[in-house]
Amino acid sequence: MRRRGRRMMGVGAAVRVSERGAGSVLALALVGAVVAVTLGLVPVLAVFVESQRAANAADAAALAAADAVSGAVAGEPCALAATVAARNGARLTGCTGGDDGEATVAVVVEALVFEVTARARAGPAPAPRRRARARGTPWPRLSRRRSR
């Protein structure tokens, strides 16, 4: 037979009885909090992942359109950009290709109930600008004081 210990009389007895089973309630509350935070973070993380996919699709579509504009690849720039965007899970919403070899595209990716948009530009690197040459030295000239 197991002994339960002494019975307490008075104020201490009420406290001892009321704490019984509190660990289970705290564990359930902790599990509920973890589930609530997880359910709150899943949509946010899903939108973040889809925004990265949209950015990648826009970059790839812009590069494909720029290749077509420059003549490196045969085909119409916007049609090629739409194909590349679709292969990356996006839909092309805007495309411009200039005579200077530059292409700009905009794509949309659906994330849950949201639409995530991304834009990208591709083309030749800008010509390096010549910096104006500074006259004189870039630091002040220091000289020793002449004693008189």
UniProtKB/TrEMBL annotation:
The keyword Transmembrane applies. Residues 124-148 are annotated as: Disordered. InterPro entries: Rv3654c-like. Keywords: Membrane, Transmembrane, Transmembrane helix. The chain crosses the membrane at residues 21-49. It comes from the Bacteria. NCBIfam families: tadE_like_DECH. This is Rv3654c family TadE-like protein. It comes from Agromyces sp. G08B096.
